[in-house]
């Protein structure tokens, strides 16, 4: 069941005062004075609330949300089912520590995630607070289980901000600069991006690594986003995932899928890897699975989750309120949100492809469901990334009532709430089109 609010009942997009308005400016001024300078703050959006896929700022401007707070607000804003679940859980108890004690929501969520695993068989779940904490735990689990140290990850990948997450990531150098030394024994290989490289280039680089530097029997895990998020919303070929599945199976290596951004119904299936018919040994989730409440999980085959009692834990991981939000979200994904992501994703993809035919600067449009990348280039022949255009598009769309977010060198990641309506698609496309026309002048 999707949110019952209809776009016709809400007046959006609407810009009442050029953002940032006066109330937004006051908050931004305070933030600039007291918050850490490491925060990015893409553009001066100061949110006050929202309904469905509409975001309202503190000055009463209303936007169509095509980014869901970085692919998190899967059920949109004020979803009645999620709100009720959170309120009811909060009214009972806020904490007990799931590592040390029991409660219903914790066990229910472990079961729901274990049973959602692709590929069949028995799986188990460890609950964390975030994506990076889940990745950190997955690395520990893979090393503990295999008794091996090396890890393989991919160019342009992003796995979070903690030391394992950061060391595995290679999407932007600023995420690593000044923070070394990184976790040792991590090797990066090319990810298949059909717009920019070939499958052969990727597999040849892998063969070279394993012939010259790294014996496969030293590798604990290959860690991959089945669809790359932060690195550019990249959709690899099925063969690429199958190559790595086979390689891992043949060499006793664990295949770990990072479904933090691509999972939880966003692509039209619960997990993105299901589109490729490739099942991992471990996967991690976070972001959209909690619809905005902080929760993540490591889900592993029972035969792999062999670490003993006390070897890993988390004070807040699987917090009761976050568990309630995740259980409600999983229910909604199964009851219609994944199907809506497929339907609206197809509409959005078709609309963006039409815009590609009109605007030379759109080099590539790719995606599954509501996980869509629009790569902007200076010239479609040279495919030179148009990073400034991406930044300008983000800013201009904001002033016209559409929330966008860039990724990679020059892509827009279209990752709206899964409650997106046809109105949100069509109106957003109009704004996207108008912005590109204006920027081309
Ligand atoms: C694929 C992927 N993995 C891990 C993370 C880290 O998640 P978190 O920010 O919840 O720690 C992210 C965050 O963007 C992500 O996109």
Looking at this protein, list some descriptive labels.
four-stranded mixed sheet, 37% helix, Aspartate Aminotransferase, domain 1, seven-stranded mixed sheet, 441 residues, single chain, globular, 11 helices, binds pyridoxal-5'-phosphate, 15 strands
Descriptive account of the structure:
The chain has eleven helices and 15 strands. The chain has helices spanning 22-34, 68-71, 80-92, 104-116, 131-146, 163-168, 199-212, 238-251, 320-358, 387-399, 422-440, and strands at 47-51, 54-57, 62-65, 123-128, 150-154, 186-189, 219-224, 254-258, 282-285, 296-301, 362-368, 371-376, 402-403, 405-407, 411-414. Strands 4-10-9-8-7-5-6 form a seven-stranded mixed β-sheet, sandwiched between helices. The chain has a four-stranded mixed β-sheet with strand order 1-2-3-13. The structure holds pyridoxal-5'-phosphate. The site of pyridoxal-5'-phosphate has 16 residues, from helix 5.
Strand order in space, largest sheet? 4-10-9-8-7-5-6
Give average pLDDT, whole number.
97
Q: Largest sheet at a glance?
A: 7 strands, mixed
Strand content: 15-25%
How many strands in all? 15
In N-to-C order, the SSE pattern is HEEEHHHEHEHEHEHEEEHEEHEEEH
CATH architecture field of the largest domain: 3-Layer(aba) Sandwich
Which ligands accompany this protein?
A: pyridoxal-5'-phosphate
Rg computed from alpha carbons, rounded to a whole number of angstroms: 21 Å
Which word captures the global form? globular
The structural class is alpha/beta
Estimate percent helicity: 25-40%
**CATH uppermost class of the largest domain:** Alpha Beta
- Output the CATH homologous superfamily of the largest domain: Type I PLP-dependent aspartate aminotransferase-like (Major domain)
CATH topology of the largest domain: Aspartate Aminotransferase, domain 2
How many discrete structural domains?
Answer: 2
Q: Regions with pLDDT < 50 over 5+ consecutive residues? A: none
C-alpha end-to-end distance: 44 Å
Number of helices: 11
